[in-house]
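ok so for the tutorial part 2 we go from a plain amino acid sequence to predicted structure tokens. step 1 is just haveing the sequence, like this:
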Amino acid sequence: MTNFHKTFGGFDTHLMLGTTTENTNTVTQNHWGYNFITAGTYSFNNIATTNKFFTDGTVRRRLVGTYGEFGVSYKSIAYLTATARNDWSSTIPVDHQSYFYPSLSGAFVFTELLPRNNILSFGKVRASWARVGKDGNPYATLTYENPPISIGSFTGVGNQYTAGNPYLIPEIQDGWEIGGEFRFLKGRISLDYTYYHSQTNNQIGAPRLAQSGGFIFSVLNSGSVINKGMEIAVSGSPVRTKDFQWDVMLNYSYNKGRLGAFIPGVAYFYPTDAQFGTIKAASIPNGGYFLGMTGTPYYRELDAKGAEMPNGRYQVDPTTGFYKVNTSGNAVVGNREPDFIGGFNNTFRYKKLSLSFLLDIRKGGDVYNGTEYALVANGLSKLTTANDRQSVTVTGVNSVTKADFTQTYTAGQNYTIGTTTYAGANLIQQYWANYAANSYNFITSVNWVKLRSLSLTYDFSGILKSTKFIKAISATAVGTNLFTWTNYKGMDPEVSAAGGTGGSGSQGIDYLGVPAVRTFTFGINVSL
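step 2 — the prediction. this is what the tokens look like for a chain of 528 residues:
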């Protein structure tokens, strides 16, 4: 890397040029076996050689890049910076393994041109645009076969479940943002504002597609993802005296993620295998929710044009005597992205004592209560004890005749539906199974306020002035996740069905998980 720096007049300029090479080798080794020779001795050496197995794998990746940056500023008023980088990646086919991405940013401190005043102490506006390139995973261009297996006199071979893509091209993200920083009353109040927009094109992914193609997943340049949002942070010191100070910070942000153009003929993109209860984590193409959910809702009554009425009554299937369920799995039932999130942090200092707390705020965003689904489906929810489990009522419109439908099923009586006679107790069980099939019964647009942390600190240093070997000492007590105020009826609205097939794509899905723990800590800090 080489740097150049030059100043002249009121200008300050710099130039940086460099190159980088990154080689990554990842080696994975796996030893396994079965049937220990001596019972109770758990050692790989206690397994017969014929029952020992060893596999290893090596993943290699090389990335070579050249980059540069040029910046110029004028006094403390204006700043302009341009960057450029070109990478060559071994994970992309040779014809497309080179990709270039520049950026440009600028800032203008307009208060440098204004008379000094006590109202607006500092003001700066800024804007930037950047392009970022990204390669794929190693060997994503290749399709592999599984090792042959023998069944009697036959030998079977087959592809692994992910198809590679020999035509892969780099993923490119373009983004821009505008914003400003403002300080008022000699810095007592500060405001930071940012609005941003980014779009990722040729996104590299491995969506789940129809298995009729011979694979479960296929590596593809699958489309575009669009994110736009806003961030605001306000901080200040409402009270500041000799012995007492109150500092406060309030932040607010939102993001709207949408999936743009996608693979023609593919209705939904399932970024992970997050499938719990009746719903799947799904991204909806052509401007739909990126953090969406698809599920199985009840059908509602139809209007004169044959379209479902959003607030219409439920359709009842006369062949089952229960609500008719859309089992296609293609219905969009929710958006897991919140309307906005925020934080409210306060710190109070009185002489040597300091008290601070942080409130975490969220408005909107759907959460699927899969735990309640599992309880209902297994007859363990309080809901299933309605009417002492002696009766249930189905009301709506007949899905065939469109006539009003109301039917109460009572334990101890028999009912004929079609040509089959059912006991009332059996129909009550079927009612709750039918209830569990409606995804909407377990989805809540969640709001919360959490007391995320509370801390109390006292500085005892003044007591130890005569002690030469201790410079400072303080004690701190901290509590986290202390209280939650929310409209969510499950255990904890801040959920993700992590682990297994959950992963990050399961945000907003509560399935047999545990809530965040409340913790308390106490510590003493000593400086010698």
